[in-house]
């Protein structure tokens, strides 16, 4: 038991003293949990606070409660989206739009979805990972196609995955290890539907670089709770009990 303990909790820049000289650990834990939940609630109601963050390899993206987009870190290929190649060590607002919904930061590039369901991309694009039909780097957000039913997106090392609101799975970018999942090793610079299933729920694009070779892979779940994997598998990252890659 702890004796003569004094707990202080900071909520929205205000320090409040709670239960001085408590002796029971259970009460301490309960109060800390309440304070944490309270701080979270307060944060969610403040427009200037961040509600979503996405760390990439060398840069970071964030969305504030007012729907504005912010970025900082490395900017060698325009991955911050501020129209420059200048690195930033503090958050800078990207454009003036206030309808950003979700973000994903990859290896020198960024993907994001707006509230209207449109998909946007910027940064490094050597392998078509932006999905805009070319391999030119972009210094500011560019819309990917014209579809307005994108639900989620994941930026990997040099390939991208996305799910539409109809549950279909889409992929584009580098495909040296079959990480797109279309049965080929052909890279794509525009989104391509993967299979015909309409029950995809979650996606995550992974990858790493060893000895001048890129190992990229993809993981996804369906609405029935089943787990799926494809792409590079040299270290057994697909979890299928082998080291065989699947395309």
Please provide a written account of the structure.
By secondary structure, this protein is mainly beta. The protein has two domains: 5-44; 50-231, Methylamine Dehydrogenase, Chain H, CATH 2.130.10.30. Helices cover 8% and strands 45% of the residues. A four-stranded antiparallel β-sheet has the order 3-4-5-6, with no helix packed on it. Strands 7-8-9-10 form a four-stranded antiparallel β-sheet, with no helix packed on it. A four-stranded antiparallel β-sheet has the order 11-12-13-14, with no helix packed on it. A hairpin with a 2-residue loop joins β1 (5-11) and β2. It is globular, with a radius of gyration of 21 Å. 36% of the residues are buried. The model is unreliable at 1-45 (pLDDT under 50).
